[in-house]
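wait is this the right file?? whatever heres the structure
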């Protein structure tokens, strides 16, 4: 009898609404086949990038991404070199493997930095309004007046080409995107009745912002983060292709495209495989981001 009563009590406990919302979102996401494809592709690339990072630093395969062999230069894909070799005889498969964590790392790091600055600016501007909102939004408008790639080019030209500088340049260009999205969501959320009730109970602004408003505007932040990672990867690859991003001999995919552009007709595989990796990763992020947006959209819950 005691056991039965305990089971009844456990079964009648209220479900945490956030846990229920997460389960509902995950269930809707599983129904989106394209989103699942994107998720599985990204999961595969993440696992491979971890192995590539370990191999690049500890030499598990015993092959360096910068090891040259001029007697085997411009070789087509074969059993010895799965993706062929470049103009210096370097194994393209190993270079793609070792460069995977660099390319993904730049995308994630730039997005993280942009969110770290843009989200607080947006939520504070939306919550307090007034002169602070005006100043922040005008600064964001100035940054938005420049196309992202041109702004990144200008910043990298000043700072110099390196992995860190490319990450900073891309992050600065993305701050307005995060700030405007968060500001709009904050303006809508702060007018809801539960926020007025919490404020009437004497809650401080810091508690209202970070415990009650921020958790309720995470959906657009998560979706924008997922989609922008793809944009960051493309921008980083574009800068490296132009020679202003990650510098050789670092095996970043955009830099590998730059290395092979003079051999496109003679040895097209040099640019084919790095370009194909960029397309696959960006497409996977877009598919997963679109599916995540649909799963988090209240209008799609029916």
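ok assuming it is, sequence goes like this
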């Amino acid at each position: 009898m005691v056991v039965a009563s305990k089971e009844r009590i456990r079964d009648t406990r209220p479900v945490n609404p956030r846990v229920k919302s997460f389960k509902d979102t995950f269930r809707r996401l599983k129904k989106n086949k394209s989103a699942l494809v994107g998720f599985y592709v990204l999961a595969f690339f993440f696992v491979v990038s971890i192995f590539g990072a370990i191999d690049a630093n500890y030499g598990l395969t015993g092959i360096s991404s910068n090891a040259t062999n001029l007697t085997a230069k411009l070789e087509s894909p074969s059993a010895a070199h799965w993706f062929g070799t470049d103009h210096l005889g370097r194994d393209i498969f190993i270079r793609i493997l070792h460069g995977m964590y660099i390319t993904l790392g730049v995308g994630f790091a730039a997005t993280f930095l942009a969110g770290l600055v843009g989200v607080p600016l947006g939520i504070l501007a939306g919550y307090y309004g007034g002169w602070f909102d005006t100043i922040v939004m005008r600064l964001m408008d100035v940054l938005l007046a420049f196309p992202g790639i041109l702004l990144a080019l200008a910043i990298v030209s000043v700072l110099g080409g390196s992995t860190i500088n490319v990450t900073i340049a891309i992050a600065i260009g993305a701050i307005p995107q995060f700030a405007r999205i968060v500001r709009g969501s904050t303006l809508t959320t702060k007018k809801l009745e539960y926020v007025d009730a919490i404020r009437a109970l004497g809650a401080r602004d810091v508690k209202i912002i970070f415990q009650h408003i921020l958790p309720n505007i995470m959906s657009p932040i998560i979706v924008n983060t997922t989609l922008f990672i793809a944009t960051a990867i493309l921008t980083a690859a574009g800068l490296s292709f132009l020679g202003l991003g990650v510098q050789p001999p670092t095996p970043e995919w955009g830099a590998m495209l730059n290395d092979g552009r003079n051999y496109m007709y003679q040895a097209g595989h040099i640019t084919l495989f790095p370009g194909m990796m960029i397309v696959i990763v960006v497409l996977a992020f877009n598919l997963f981001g679109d599916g995540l947006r649909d799963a988090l959209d209240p209008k799609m819950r029916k």
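The first helix runs from residue 2 to 11. so i think its the right one actually
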